[in-house]
Amino acid sequence: MCAADDAIDIIHEAEEKATKRIQEAEIAVRQMREQTEAEAKRILQEAESETKKAAALSGSDIAKQKEEIERRSRRDLEAVINGIEESARNHRTAAIQAVAKILLGEK
Amino acid sequence: MTGVESIVQMIEAKAAEKVDQMPKEAEEQRDLQLKDAKQKAAAIAEDIRSKAEKELKSELAKHEASMKLKAKYLVLGTKEKAVKDVLESAVKVAKKEMEGKKCTDVLMRFAVEGGTALASQNLEIVFPEKQKATIDQSQVANAISKNLGQKVTVSVAKDTVRASGGLIVRSGDGSKWVDNTFEGRMERLTSRMRDEAARILFEEKSE
């Protein structure tokens, strides 16, 4: 009877040790899982934050691009208006005569 | 080995196996989770970049369209100024010609053109109060008769019209008329005169 009790105690002790090892391993796994979740969250937040910063930085360049558009537009417009004014100067007399003829019923 | 030792060994072996297996599974799970997070991060970054680029392009396109519109208005304003100058100068030229030798010819033309358009047998011509030149009524009647292929009579009305030059031709009963006064023609022909001025001023260059 005494030998049997000893055997049960030994088995029980072994089971307790095993349970403890498993619990320790579970704690380690849980910690790993928590760390992983935190790292995944950090990866997502960093990606969002860094990309937003980069996008804002490229957006700040918009003023320069707008200025370039305005400069190009002014240059093109100046050329067009010069052309119009030159053409108008060159044909002014002919146009006046033609319109006067319409008014006088000659055309 | 005793039975107890064997049982203890089995318990330890099972625990060891489980303890050994748990981190491996956790590492596999961690790798998968981090891989997934990186993929999501790349997608988020791409989405933000794409939206930012789209907004940037849209804003620049709007700005460019706005500049083009402003340029268009300025071009139209420049053309309008030149056309207006031509119309004003043409009116002065025409009025000056009406004071010279051409006056009778012009009035004759106005009368014949108006009378032919009315196609009425009896016609009256109404002059402005201050119209100096007169026209030969029979000459006008003959020209209109010839155009219409029927006999037409023309007389000068006693009443006058308020205008700077030209004349009005009206049917004998006063029901129809053609306003060939200067002001009437200007109003009627403005669109044609503007088109002609613009055509000559701006399109001849490309010819």
Question: What's a quick, concise take on this entry?
Answer:
The complex is a heterodimer of chains A (107) and B (207). Chain A has two helices and no strands.
> What are the segments of chain A in which pLDDT stays under 50 over at least 5 consecutive residues?
none
Would you tell me the structural class of the helices and strands of chain B?
alpha+beta
Rg of chain B (CA only) = 47 Å
Largest sheet of chain A: none
What distance separates the N and C termini of chain B? 116 Å
Oligomer: heterodimer
As for the number of domains of chain A, it is 2
Instruction: Name the CATH class of the largest domain in chain B.
Output: Alpha Beta
Walk me through what this model shows:
- The complex is a heterodimer of chains A (107) and B (207).
- Chain A is mainly α.
- In chain A, 93% of the residues lie in helices and 0% in strands.
- Chain A is built from 2 helices and no strands.
- The longest helix of chain A is centred in the N-terminal third of the chain and has 58 residues, at 2-59.
- The N and C termini of chain A lie far apart (140 Å).
- Chain B has 207 residues and is of the alpha+beta class.
- Chain B folds into 2 domains: 1-70; 100-206, hypothetical protein PF0899 fold (2-Layer Sandwich).
- Chain B is 71% helix and 10% strand.
- In chain B, strands 2-1-3-4 form a 4-stranded mixed β-sheet.
- At the A-B interface, helix 1 and helix 2 of A face helix 1, helix 2 and helix 4 of B.
